[in-house]
Amino acid sequence: MFPTKEHVHGIKRQEVLREAAASFNFKGYHATSLTEIATSLGVTKAALYHYFPNKNSLLAACFEHAMEVAFASLERGRKQGKDGRERLVLTLAGYLSQLIDELNCCVVLMEEHALEPGDRAKLVRQRDRFERALRALVKEGIEDGSVVPCDPKLAIFVILGALNWVPKWFKPSGPWRPEQLTLALSQIFERAVSSAPAAALPRDVGDLPTHRPQGPARQLLPARRGAISVASSRPAPKQKRRAGGKS
Amino acid sequence: MFPTKEHVHGIKRQEVLREAAASFNFKGYHATSLTEIATSLGVTKAALYHYFPNKNSLLAACFEHAMEVAFASLERGRKQGKDGRERLVLTLAGYLSQLIDELNCCVVLMEEHALEPGDRAKLVRQRDRFERALRALVKEGIEDGSVVPCDPKLAIFVILGALNWVPKWFKPSGPWRPEQLTLALSQIFERAVSSAPAAALPRDVGDLPTHRPQGPARQLLPARRGAISVASSRPAPKQKRRAGGKS
DNA sequence: TAGCAAACTGACCGTACGGTTAGTAAACCG
DNA sequence: CGGTTTACTAACCGTACGGTCAGTTTGCTA
Predict the structure, then answer these.
(1) CB-closest option in B30, B153, B160 to A31
(2) A159 CA to chain B: closest CA distance, Å?
(3) Which of A41, A170, A31 has the alpha carbon at shortest distance from A96?
(4) Residue of A nearest to B157 (CA)
(5) What is the CA radius of gyration of chain A?
(6) Nearest residue for D19, CA–C1'
(7) How many CB atoms lie within 10 A of CB B45?
(8) Residue closest to A63 by CA, chosen among A126, A144, A134
(9) Is the CB of A35 under 7 A from strand C?
């Protein structure tokens, strides 16, 4: 049988995570209430506790996923790139594109302060490791001549800033496709650090080639009323406040 | 007489704003409680209400100040720059440097969602105007040949992302002086968009020239116990929770 | 020195939100 | 079929935080 029990559970869990990530990215962790997340999934707050033990673990899961993607991209970049600059740009492009379409536009890494000390320490360790690896790529690039001499620390701060800012303005429903964005950003980054910058950049991101056709692709598992579905938007049950006011 | 009553009030107000801005920038609006702000100023929460009507107005004031600085920098950049690229870079440098030392490292512009609808609409209007102006500078630069042909919208997103990210990692007490940071950032931005990029960038931001000597410069008005002083750090009165618990 | 306003405190209120729990309804299993 | 598990809801609790207010301290003015 196709959708086993655990499989369905996993998919719904993913869906919760995606919704949470999108909201955390856009409005911030503290500004996002569980009720909001639940409502936009068509369920009530309590339902979320079937998938995550508490709000904080949702955030932790976002970070965990982001860091997994980060290191996977790093490895791929290291393998496929032929010099420091290529390795750097490939890593960044992989990181960005994967997070965009897996977590509905997610680069997180803001909001780390909201994590609990243990989770936070772990994240900080991993993130530092990732940043150090990126800086190392810059250094490699300087040494092999592919990257202009510069302060690797600052260069990486600038690049990560631009990257982490993406969720604030990018909407998958907007005029630019994720692949176009990834490509265009890579080119700007490349130009900023390359020892021999290209003469030109795309004049309009929307003119860049796209791989996938327009329009939403994902659509599965129409669930019963009041359950988490993947067809994102539905009436949603009203969530009443406690009956008697106070007086 | 030197410090008139209103003058002192104004200075303290500034001090509150600076403290709030620093915390909003670093941890976010919702993660910052008024008690925290008050405590680190050495007063209690209620004291803040002598300077601002509510928490939201603190945020609004941050944005207002940031936008004033933005447009002032824009005007200066327009006057002093000789081509599109120079005007752009001067604007950005002015914006960054002024915000860093006036608001203790502040570029805000995240957290706009926390504003009340009226304030928010105003901010969005102003910010859009600022962004459009920056894009116009890029376009000018492309036309006069000082800027590489590119998508002005994306270029500005990238630059503002890097800029808005600064408060997340920059500490005035760290190894880099604000002027060094401003200069180094300007050079990277310039390189990313210039039609004829410089061959090199500074290898170490800390080696760049500084104008001011190291160490904190500001120190005024030691206030009486329990009042807002400018000498930032002091014991701070404990802020007890309500006496009887609940039972 | 009295009078007064501004600055601040400490105790308090209302409420939004994270989290819990008892109960229901569908789905699964023998 | 009956029994059990899973998914979910409605109603509720505790509390942290924004905001208020009566009262005290400080310092200016006359």
Answers:
(1) B30
(2) 7
(3) A170
(4) A162
(5) 20
(6) B54
(7) 15
(8) A126
(9) yes
| Partners of residue B124 in chain A, C-beta under 8 Å | none
Query: Integer distance in angstroms from CA B50 to C1' D20?
Result: 13
Query: Pick from A113, A164, A202: which is nearest to B27 by CB?
Result: A113
Residues A127 and A67 sit within 8 Å (Cβ to Cβ): yes
Residuewise pLDDT in 10s, chain B (247 residues): 456 777 889 999 999 999 999 899 888 899 999 999 999 999 999 999 999 999 999 999 999 999 999 999 999 999 999 999 999 999 999 999 888 777 654 556 778 889 999 999 999 999 999 999 999 999 999 999 999 999 999 999 999 999 988 888 888 888 999 899 999 999 999 988 898 877 677 888 888 888 755 444 343 334 455 677 644 333 344 454 443 333 2
Q: Which of B28, B161, B162 sits opposite A30 (nearest CB)?
A: B28
The Cα B144–Cα B82 span in angstroms is: 10
Helix (H) or strand (E) holding B3: none
In a mutational test of the B interface, the residue from A23, A123, A154, A179 whose CB has the highest number of chain B CBs within 10 Å is A154
Residue identified by tokens 């440098």 is: B93
Q: Which of A44, A46, A45, A57 is nearest to A17 (CA)?
A: A57
d(CA B159, CA B93): 11
**How far does A119 lie from chain B, in Å, by closest CA?**
16
Q: Dihedral sign for Cα A46, A52, A53, A56, please.
A: negative
Among candidates B222, B224, B220, B181, which has minimal Cα distance to B204? B181
Residues 6+ apart with CB under 8 A from B3: B11, B221
**pTM of the prediction?**
0.82
B9 touches strand C (CB under 7 A): yes
Q: Protein footprint on strand C: which nucleotides are under 7 Å from a CB?
A: 6-22, 26-29
Is A140:A87 a contact under the CB 8 Å cutoff? yes
Tell me the C-alpha distance between B138 and A198, whole Å: 18
User: Which of A157, A95, A243 lies closest to B174 in space, CA to CA?
Assistant: A157
